[in-house]
Amino acid sequence: DDGSPTNASPANTIGPIAMGLAQAYIYTEDADYLAALEDAGDFLTSKTVFSGSDGFLAAQLDEIFGVTTYTAYVKTNFYDKLAAGTYVGSSGTYNTSSYIAYIRNFRSGRSANLAAWDLGYALVGAASCGVTGAELDYWIDGVKAEINELDDYTDTPGETMSYFTLGLAGALYGLAYV
Length: 178
Hints:
3% strand
């Protein structure tokens, strides 16, 4: 928050931004960072449209504050609704499988390799929020499918490895985490 209510970051960036803030707090124990993390937690628990990294952030906030509030909120309002096929996102109603397909399709074209990144971190988020069994397998399978489709774009003049390394890193992190 830069102080201007008209200049908010996109809601899907809270996970990575607040995770950086959390690491800064863990390293410094700066009270201002802790207060900002409380604000991030308040924002997270007001969300109704989620991103894959929200579960990862929820687990980090729970650890810092010694609670289960954040993972419980994300699991109930995102992962459990996906499992039931009742999650309403920005582009429709989804179950876990159709949401993963949405991410994969959304990241097609020039940013296709970012789906591997997105799904890798979503896999970490799902596992961090206690998703198990077949529901977790959907995320694992989505990540594996994206690894198999990574494209280094070497056939495009002037382009080399567009998001390839980033996608691979996120995907491998997710698989290593679980």
